[in-house]
Batch of 2 targets.
Target 1
Amino acid sequence: MSGKGSSAWFERAQRVVPGGVMSPARSFGRVGGGAPVFLERAAGARVWDVDGRSYIDYLGAFGPHILGHGHPRLVAALAEQLERGLLFGTPHRGEVELAERLVAAVPCLEQVRLVSSGTEAVMSMVRLARAATGRSLVLKFDGHYHGHFDGALVGAGSGAAQSGDGGSEGIPGAVLAQTVSIPFNDLSAARQVAEQHRGDLALILVEPVCGNMGVVYPVPGFLAGLRQLADDVGALLAYDEVIVGFRARFGPAYPLVGPAPDLIAFGKALGGGLPIGAYGGRADLMRLVTPLGPMFQAGTYAGNPLSVRAALTVLDILSEPDVYLRLEEGASSLADGLLAIGRHQGWPLSLTRLGSTWTLFFRAEPPHSLAEAAQQDRAAFSRFFQGMLARGILLAPSFYESWFWTLAHGARELEETLEASQLVFSKG
Ligand SMILES: Cc1ncc(COP(=O)(O)O)c(C=O)c1O
C-alpha cells in the first residue's frame, strides 16, 4: 500500500494523465492496484516518496541506474555541462569521444549513431536492416521488448505483456504482418520461419539475454543457431542490448552467450539516468544511414551534450578496476540470499541473474520462454511485492521485471533487504 500523499497525487494524476502514469509499467495494476508510489527524491541506493518514507531502490528506474542515484562524479560532470550548454544542433567533441569509446568497447561495432531512447535505437536498427537487405520481414521472440514503435509490438514483453498479448491497437495490419514473433529458445520454429520466408527475411532481432519477461537466458547454441540461420538466408542478426548492455561487463553482454551480431543497440545503463540510445554495427551497413546513404534517421536531441556527458562519465566509472566484480559480488549475495530464504520458507522460487540484474521467479524452475515465465504464482508475487514495499523495499511492480543492484548498494542494503524478505516470506 502506498502512503496518503501518493494516493492523493494519484487521484490528481488520473484526472489529467491516462491511468495516472506516463508509462504503463509504472502502474500497480498487476500487484493489487491502487496508487503507485510517487517518488520525489533519490540518493545512493535509496529513494523517498512524497510522504517522506524511504525505500531501498531495486527498481533502478527499470535499468538505467548502475551507479546509484546522484553519483558525485556524474552530478559534477552534469553541472559543468549545464554551464557549457544544453543543446547545440551541431556536432560536438563529446559525441565523437563517446562514439570512439563505444566502438572500442564493443567488438561488433565499427560505427555508431546516438539517439535519445532505446525505442529509437532499435527502431532505427530495424529500418537499417530493411534498407540493407531490401526485404521487410522481422523475426523476433515472444516476451522480448524492443520499445514501443509499431513494428515491435508483436508478442512484446515488459509492460506490453502485462497489459495484454504484447500487442497494441492502432497499428495497421500491413505493418503487423511484417513482424513474426515466435517462442524464445525455439530454434526449430526460427528455422521454419526463416525457410518459409527465405527471400523476405530482413532481420532476426533478439535480446541476447532477455530482460523483459524477467531475466531469461538463451539455451546453449541458440544464438549461434540464429547466426547461422541469418547467414543461410541472407538476413541480418541484431542484438537489442538496451537492458543488458554494460550491465554484466564493460561492453555488450553477448560475448557471454553467443556470437557477434551485424547490428547492436544500447540504452539504459549507458546514460546512467539520462535519456540515451545508441545503435550501430558493421561500417558497410552504417554507411547506408543518411546523409551518406538512403536510410533516413534523425533527431533534434540525438547526441545531446547532457546525455553524452552522462554516458562518458558512466563509462569512466564503469571502466575502473573491479567495478563489475563489486557489482557481481553484491548482486549475487543478495539474489542467492533471497532465494535461500524464500525456499526455506517453502515458496516455489527460482532465480536467474545476469551480473547486477536478476529475477526471482515465483515458479520452481527458471523459465526459458514467455509461456513458462507467464506460469508464475502471480498472487504470491503480489503479496511479496506489497510486503517488501511495506518494509521499505521498492521492487518493479511486475513479475516480468528484474531487480537492479548498483554501485551505491552495499552491505547495509543487503542486510536490510534480507531481513525484510525473511519477514515477508515467513508470513506466507
Ligand atoms: C531490451 C529493450 N529494448 C528497448 C527498450 C526501449 O527503451 P526505451 O524505453 O528507452 O525507449 C527497452 C526498455 O525497456 C528494453 O528493455
Note: Residues 62, 117-119, 122, 145-147, 158, 207, 211-212, 240, 242-243, 267 surround pyridoxal-5'-phosphate (CB under 6 Å).
Target 2
Amino acid sequence: MISVVIIGSGNVAKHLIKAFLKIDNINLKQVYTRNLKDEALLKNSVSTTNDLSLIKQADVTIIAVNDDAISHISSKIKNSLVVHTSGSVEMNALKNPNNKGVFYLLQSFSKEKEINFSTIPICLEAEDNKDLLKLEKLASLLKGDIYYLSSLQRKKIHVAAVFVNNFTNHMYAIAHKICEDHNVPFNILQPLIIETSQKIANLTPKKAQTGPAIRNDEETIKNHLNLLTESQQELYLKITQSIQNHGKEL
Ligand SMILES: NC(=O)c1ccc[n+]([C@@H]2O[C@H](COP(=O)([O-])OP(=O)(O)OC[C@H]3O[C@@H](n4cnc5c(N)ncnc54)[C@H](OP(=O)(O)O)[C@@H]3O)[C@@H](O)[C@H]2O)c1
C-alpha cells in the first residue's frame, strides 16, 4: 500500500484523483484545494482541506498546480517526499525542506476527456534512489510506461511535446477555419489526420514527409499562398521553408 496526498484540483489532479480512488493499493489520504466548488465535489469521495498547514503525512505528496505556483506551495509542505507534475519545471524548483521528485505524465489532460493511464508515459525523477522506487511503485499501479528523465531531458521533451501536440492542434484549427469558410465538413480531413499520426509508428517523420514543400512544387505553393489570408501565408511560408531546410539537414 502506498499513501498519497494531492495538492490541486485542476485537470491533472482530477484525473489522478479519479484513477487513484479506483486502485486498491493506493491510499489517497487527502486532496488540498483552494477551490471551494472543487472541494464540494470531492469531499464525498476523499478527505479535503483548503489549509496547507493541515496537509496529512503521506508516502508521496503530488503537487499538481500551475507551474508558477509550484515553488511557493512546496515551500509550505513538510512531508517526506514532495513531487510536482510539470514537464517544464526543474525538480529543484521545489522548495520543500525534505525529499523532492517529479511525476510527469506526458499526455494532454482536459477535465471533460477520459484518460486511459495505461497508455501514458510517466517520467520520473528523484534525488534519492529509495524515492525513485516509491514513484516507480506508484507509476506501475497506474500501469503507464515508466521513463527516467533528468530535469534537462524532461524540459527538452516538453518542447518536443509542444510541437507534436499544441502546434499540430493549431494547424487543425487553421484547417478547420478553411473548411468552415468553404462549407466543407472538417470531418473530411479525419482519415488524413489519423493516417499521418499512425504512419510515424513505422517511418521516421522525415521519411514520412510528403507535400508540395518537400517536392519543391513552386507552382502549387504559389497557388496555395493566393488562397490564404496574410497571417496564414506567413505561417505557410515559414513551415514550407522549415520542411525544405529539414529535408537537407536535421
Ligand atoms: N493539463 C495538461 O495537459 C498537463 C499535462 C502534463 C503536466 N501538466 C502539469 O500539471 C500541473 C497542473 O496542470 P493542470 O493542467 O492540471 O492545471 P489547471 O487545470 O490549471 O489546475 C491548476 C490547479 O492549481 C491550483 N492553483 C494554482 N495556483 C495556486 C495557488 N497559488 N495556490 C493554490 N492552488 C493553486 C488551481 O486552483 P484554482 O482552481 O483555484 O485556480 C487548480 O486546482 C502543471 O504543472 C502542468 O504543467 C499539465
Note: The chain has a mean pLDDT of 95.
